[in-house]
Specification:
The protein is built from nine helices and five strands. It has about 210 residues and is of the alpha/beta class.
């Protein structure tokens, strides 16, 4: 008796380059294991696809317009049963795989890798495995940025933009006392004593 045909892996891609989007569409079309369900150009459209479509694996860039890979991974923390995500990027940041792993990605693949490696990475992640180049996991527990709440990340970005407490309160529609409360928690998590040190940490790491 003939066996049942295995279900294909549903994929949604977020890639800023039109040329690469076209290439990825052709690549997945050649492999019957996969079904490309949607192609988006930025992180916000990818999250819209997450809300509107059920799929297995998301392939996202690290540096994208509107919302980058970090922002997408953070947003997915609030999504019940999110797709497994692979960061597919040409970034030259050697720490990007660790940051992606810390933020919840299931895989990481460089655009300089052969296409066959990308396909195998997607297949492995769809099967429940983690696929990363070497990552110094000892540093994961020491990365304070992964523990920041969305509000604390907003505050840190506002600090880096030079906003005063009053301006932050107006921007976020909260009281100045609430701003001070969040800043105290933020400073404690980053082990810093003031806004200048917090901004320095933000500029040095940018991991969230």
């Amino acid at each position: 008796m003939a066996g049942h045909k295995k279900r294909t892996v549903g994929i949604v891609v977020a890639e800023k380059s039109p040329l690469l989007r076209s290439g990825l569409a052709e690549l997945f079309a050649t492999d019957e294991r996969f079904s490309l369900l949607a192609m988006t150009a930025d992180g916000e459209d990818f999250l819209r696809a997450v809300r509107e479509t059920r799929f297995d694996v998301g392939l996202i860039g690290w540096e994208m317009p509107l919302l980058d890979g970090r922002g997408v991974l953070l947003a997915l923390r609030d999504v019940p049963e999110p797709p497994r995500v692979i960061v597919y990027t040409g970034t030259t940041d050697p720490d990007a795989p660790r940051r992606a792993l810390a933020l919840g990605a299931a895989g990481f693949c460089s655009k300089s890798d052969p296409p066959a490696q990308l396909l195998e990475t997607v297949a492995a992640v769809a099967a429940g495995r983690m696929m990363f180049p070497f990552v110094d996991v000892s540093r994961l527990a020491n990365d304070p940025f992964t523990d920041l709440t969305p509000r604390e990340r907003e505050l840190l970005a506002s600090l880096a933009g030079g906003l005063t407490n009053a301006q932050i309160a107006g921007k976020l529609d909260i009281s100045i006392n609430t701003v001070k409360f969040h800043l105290k928690n933020l400073y404690d998590k980053l082990s810093v004593g003031n806004r200048a040190q917090a901004v320095a940490a933000f500029l040095r790491d940018r991991s969230f």
